[in-house]
Amino acid sequence: MANNQGAAMSQFPSAKALIPFVSVENMMRLVHHVGVETMLVELTDAIEADFRRWDVFDKTPRIASHSRDGVIELMPTSDGEIYGFKYVNGHPKNMAAGFQTVTAFGLLAQVSTGYPVLLTEMTLLTALRTAATSAMAARHLAPKKVRVMAMIGNGAQAEFQALAMKAVVGIEEVRLYDIDPQATAKAAANLADSGLIVTACGTAHEAIRGAGIITTCTADKQFATILTDNMVGAGVHINAIGGDCPGKTELHKDILARADTFVEYPPQTRVEGEIQQMDPDYPVTELWRVVRGEAEGRRDQRQITLFDSVGFAVEDFSALRYVREKLKGTDFYQEIDIIADPDDPRDLFGMLRRAKV
Fold first, then answer.
1. What is the pLDDT of residues 62-96, one digit of tens each?
2. Alpha helices in 240-333 (DSSP H)
3. Which residues contact 317 (CB under 8 A, 6 or more apart)?
4. Of the candidates 316, 303, 304, 240, which has an alpha carbon nearest to the alpha carbon of residue 276?
5. What's the distance, CA 214 to chain centroid?
6. Helices (H), the chain
7. What SS3 state is found at 56?
8. Among the residues of 178-301, which ranges form H helices?
9. Residues involved in catalysis
């Protein structure tokens, strides 16, 4: 009888088999528990802390599978103790069919054992970490005491960008423009109680009037010209986050010829970012060097700075580690049985046989 009970018990997962899983519902609960702006500030600091130790990370351009419909990517990195990756897609046509353009999930694992320690949704978390990364860059590159931001492209990322710039940089007004007026109306409604002055604009020219930060975030998968050279005056910071794959850009190359450009990881950005339009020797500065004080960021009030952001795995790693820490002492996750854990590590088949009903 005792043997039968032991066999029955072995069908149930042990603690080694269980890892925390954060669903979309629980991610939303976590964000509201922390507070959206507080979380954006804390994520900004977490990402900056990892940029300061940039040299410890494994770095590789994301692994992309391109199709005529979009792209599916894996973004891996490790600091030697923890390994992390994100699965993410980009399908611009999805919105017309009622699907998200970008979806994602991510995982952390212990390097010493290879066992996962966190699995989480990352569609919301990617929006938060992208906005936090933008704010981190602006903290180092934007004009001092900037108060107005133009947001060109008012899709799923727009509100996160505006709130991050408010919480981290101190902007007081956001000027919105999108070729789809309904997108602008959506963003304006969502930001109505944010404490920001929100201005809906009819053209990109109108939106950038008086703005010290210009953020572009559009979804069309093509060489596009959202900003032309004559639209950009001296002394602004451009936060270009829409160009993130080969053949997809937002800025006229003449703007890049006038700007000092800062990037995450050049081998990836030269293929995917705005600088794919430029010669291979076009000069760029890696943002981590500015964060660590090894390179100059903004040097004068007339300089045009450009953060050519395509998103890099270290930022996702930072966000995943942040969430893992924030889960401690909460119920904003569920444990899922994702690792096979036989009583005898050599007896995987025996575990399967004992589970037969």
1. 999 989 888 899 999 999 999 999 999 988 889 88
2. 253-258, 266-272, 287-291, 313-326
3. 50, 57, 77, 78, 79, 82, 84, 108
4. 240
5. 18
6. 2-9, 24-34, 36-52, 123-141, 158-164, 181-190, 204-208, 253-258, 266-272, 287-291, 313-326, 348-354
7. helix
8. 181-190, 204-208, 253-258, 266-272, 287-291
9. 244
Phi-psi region of 266 (alpha: psi -120 to 50; beta: other; left: phi over 0): alpha
pLDDT digits (tens, 9 = 90+) for 193-216: 999 999 999 999 999 999 999 999
Are the CB atoms for 237 and 141 separated by under 8 Å?
yes
pLDDT of residue 12: 66
pLDDT, tens digit, 9 for 90 and up, residues 242-260: 877 788 889 999 999 999 9
- Coil/strand/helix, residue 110: strand
Whether 220 shows a pLDDT value over 70: the answer reads no
**pLDDT band with cut points at 50, 70 and 90 for residue 224:** confident
Q: Would strands 116-121 and 148-152 be described as parallel, antiparallel, or unpaired? A: unpaired
Quick one: average pLDDT of 157-183?
A: 97
* Structure tokens that stand for 168 in this block: 């981290």
The answer to whether residues 134 and 213 touch, using CB atoms and an 8 Å cutoff, is no
Q: Which domains does the chain have, with CATH numbers?
A: 11-124+314-354 (3.30.1780.10), 134-311 (3.40.50.720)
User: How far is CA 71 from each of CA 62, 90, 102, 263, rounded to the nearest angstrom?
Assistant: 11, 5, 10, 21
State the pTM of this model. 0.93
